[in-house]
Amino acid sequence: MKLPHIPAGYFGIAILTPIFAGLASFGAVSWLAFFRTLLFFGCIVLFLPVANRLLQSDRKYKTLLVLGGAFVAGVIACALAFPLATSIITRTCPVHYLLSGGVYLILFYGVYLLYVRYSFHWSFLFIYLTPAGMAGYIFHQIPILDSAETFITVCLASILNALTMAFFLTVLFTRLNPLPRPPSNGKNGFASSGFRIICCLLFGFGGFFSIFSNGVIGYEQERMFMMAHYSDLSAIRELSGQLESYKSALSFTPGKKPEEVKFQVEKNDKVSPDGQITIQRGRDGYTQAIFLYKGKKIYTAESVHERGFWDRNRYVFPVSDSVWNELTFHGNAPPTVHSFKAQGVDIVPGTDAVFYCKDNEFFLKKGDSEPKKIYSAKPFFSRFSTQYHPVATTYSPGFKHIFYVCRRHQFLALPTRILFVFESGTDKVYIYDHFGSYNDNSPMQWREKK
User: What is the pTM of this model?
Assistant: First the structure.
């Protein structure tokens, strides 16, 4: 039995499609991202024979049919990939996610129609496919656009991502295309071997840097989306005061966005409020702390993770990322030491209570009594896949507002601090990005304006 003829290009398609899909999704560091991209690239490939058949037919509106079919194929590709999507952006904007696939394919096959009609050289095809890919990428990222800075970031990332897709589509529409290749009308001077080398180098560098740009956008897109859709300025409409750490403060004025203030001289915790107890630190400023009562050594803390804060005769400080110590001093006698697990802590002045956070929940603990839950931010953070690592927390009077500073890791960059202000009565949240220095682990305290 004679087997049906299979064009040689199909074998190349079967090999190159997963390779390019892997390259385009590599920066996301996720198998789900790879399979989503593979489904998308696969639908582009599978629609090519359909487009060729329509172009070879005698139908009156074949151009519109090709573009309409491309749009439907793109929507189907995203519909198939939708169950593999893990981002809150996709779940919140499913219609836009489906439409983005259609927009991508309309742009790509619009360029393909021009290529078939005008028979230009493959190097021009590569050039035209690049802005088409950029436009599709920018449309796909519309839900995260909340500022000019974000738009510029997306535009820069789109260039690198578009080069990978443009090179794949150039190979698909020319060398691997079962439709006979149109004769080139391009001049050999411009489309010379030297220019081809330039295109290959662009692809090589673009493919390499697209890995990193995908990583950057992958790490940043949820934050951008969160800032654009979940940050509510009305959550802080009544706040009037200053959120202070040792290195900087954030000033709140009713009806306005907060303004960051840098302290010229950092605050210190080396002297108790009554001036009787001083702290003598090790060479690195942390690790060891010696407590002196009127110059006499009364206690040594061997593990000090960061500076702490005073309230009357109490000193509270972190000894690790999730363990804090509370020292209660009694004159020249050694202090009473109490350890407890927490990720961020503040004191309740004039009492023996502490306010602390643990696993995105906030508690008030008075003395030896059981802690009382004040507020839970778990429902908010469960929406996002990004991990936020708590640094500090505090509160406004009556716990009406909960201030929560977390560190957010970035792709190939220093981690940044992001502030969440939860209005406990309404569950609204205001988000302030890049608050303070990335290496500031000091506790915070809220000061009401008088």
Answer: 0.71
Partnered with residue 104 across adjacent β-strands are none
Positive or negative, the CA dihedral 252, 256, 260, 265 is negative
- How far is Cα 34 from Cα 31, in angstroms, rounded to an integer? 5
Contacts of 100 (CB under 8 A, 6+ apart): 74, 78, 136, 139, 140
Q: Which residues contact 415 (CB under 8 A, 6 or more apart)?
A: 407, 408, 409, 438
Could you give the C-alpha distances from 67 to 41, 126, 167, in angstroms and in order?
17, 19, 21
Q: Collapsing DSSP states into helix, strand and coil, what is residue 450?
A: coil
Task: Give 444's contacts (C-beta < 8 A, 6+ positions apart).
Answer: 243, 244, 245, 346, 392, 393, 394, 403, 405
Cβ neighbours, 10 Å, residue 208: 14
Q: Tally Cβ neighbours within 10 Å of residue 378.
A: 10
Find out whether 41 and 25 touch, Cβ atoms under 8 Å.
no
Q: Convert the pLDDT of each residue in 269-298 to its tens digit.
A: 788 888 888 888 776 556 788 888 888 888
Q: Which helix (H) or strand (E) holds 362?
A: strand 361-366
Other C-beta atoms lying within 10 Å of the C-beta of residue 13 = 19
Q: Are 370 and 363 in contact (CB under 8 A)?
A: no
- Rounded to the nearest 5 percent, the helix, strand and coil shares of the chain are 45, 25, 30
Residue 185's DSSP bridge partners are none
Interatomic CA distance for residues 92 and 240, integer angstroms? 33
Q: Which sign does the torsion angle of CA 94, 429, 371, 287 carry?
A: positive
Question: Which pair of structure tokens corresponds to residue 243?
Answer: 């959120």
User: Residue 303 — very low, low, confident or very high, per pLDDT cuts 50/70/90?
Assistant: confident
Which of 117, 434, 446, 97 shows the shortest CA–CA distance to 251?
Answer: 446
Rounded percentage of the chain residues whose pLDDT exceeds 90:
25
Calculate the alpha carbon distances from 202 to 31, 195, 205 in Å. Answer: 26, 10, 5
CA distance 117 to 347: 74
